[in-house]
C-alpha cells in the first residue's frame, strides 16, 4: 500500500478514537458492563458463550495504570472499534476504492449508532467488529489467490468472542469455496488444524474454572457443561421461538436501524454497490451477501432488548457494498465533469466526507455515553 494511503488510516483512526474517548462512559454501565469489567479484572468465567479472547484482552487492559478498572476496559472497546474503522478503510483501499470514499465510509460506519454505542461502553462487540473485518480483509486476499492459512486461523478465532461472527465465517467460507473450488479439498487437513488452533482460547474456560475463579458462570468444568456454556444453552429459549408477526416486526426495526446507519438516502447506493461488486468480484460479493442475510435472519429471530449490536456483521457487509457503490457513482460523475474546472472536481471528489460528518453530528448525543451515571447512581442509592 502506498504511503499516502497509509496516511489516511493514521488520520482517520486517531480521529475516531478521540471522539470515542470524548463520549466514553464515565463509569459502570447497564446490562453486562459491570460483569464484564469485573470478569476481565478477576479473570472470571463470563456469561455464555464465555468470551475467552475478550477476557484475556480485557485483563491486559486492566493492567494499564490509569483511571478506574471499568474505564480501562471501556477504553479497550473504544480502541478496538477505532481499529475496526481503520480495517474497513484498508479493505476499501484494497478493493480499489478512492481514498475519500473509503475514508468517508469508514467514518460513516464508526459514527453509526450500532458501532458507536458499543465503542463507548464495556462490551464484547468492538472485538467482534475487528475480527469480522480481519476475516473480510483476509477473504479479499484469498479471492485474488492469496494464502488460506491465516483465514482458517481467523475463522476459528472469530468464534471465540461472539457467535454473531458465525455469519461472517459462513460467508467467508463460501467466498473461499467459490475461489478455490476443487483445489480446496487437498488443503482441508491443514486448514482444519489451523481452525482448531484459532478456537483454542476456549480452553481458558475449562482451565480457569478448575483454578477456582471468584465467579465461574455456568461452571464449565465438564465437557457437557462446557458445551452448554459455549453454545449459550440457557439463551436458546429466545432464539427462533417467535411468531411470524413478531419476526416481521423485528425485521422492520432491524431494517430501520440499518437504514438509519446509512442516513436513509444512501440505502439505494448499497444495493448498487452489491451489483457492481458482483460484476467485479463475484465470489467475494456472494460471500458478503450471504453473510448479511444470515446475520440479519439471526438477529430478527432472537428476542432480546439490546439486539442492535447483533446487526454489526450485517452492517459491515453493507458498508462494503455501500463504498463500492459510492465509488462507482463518484467515478461516473467525475468522468462527466471532465470539462469542468479543477476546483469543482476537487469539491465533488471530497463530497463523500459529508456523510461521515453528518453521522457524527446526528449520533453524538444518542450514541455517546458521556455523563451517563444511571447504573452507578442506582447502585449507590440502593446501597
Automatic annotation (TrEMBL):
The keyword Mitochondrion does not apply. The chain crosses the membrane at residues 7-25, 73-93, 105-138, 150-178, 190-207, 257-278, 285-304, 310-330. InterPro entries: GT117_domain-containing, TMEM260-like. The keyword Ribonucleoprotein does not apply. It holds the Pfam family TMEM260-like. Keywords: Membrane, Transmembrane, Transmembrane helix. It comes from the Bacteria. This is DUF2723 domain-containing protein.
